[in-house]
Specification:
The chain is an alpha+beta fold. It contains one helix and four strands, in the order ββββα. The radius of gyration is 13 Å and the shape is flat.
């Protein structure tokens, strides 16, 4: 795997795995010893996530 860091925030990291063309979302709870959840998404799943986030953003306005 060759990961390219796209976003790195306190509790969220987004990386691109250019070996298998997938996105990695890594979320942690921010505790002293943080627990992590990593989600691997293919291109279609990334599109679905973007669409869902756009709908959420529109609802917030």
């Amino acid at each position: 795997m060759a990961w390219v860091q796209i976003l790195d925030k306190d509790h969220l990291s987004v990386k691109f795995d250019n070996k298998d063309d997938s996105a990695l979302l890594e979320i942690n709870d921010g505790g002293i010893s943080p627990n992590y959840v990593t989600i691997r998404l293919n291109e279609q799943e990334v599109d679905e996530l973007i669409e869902a986030l756009q709908r959420i953003k529109q609802s917030m306005q």
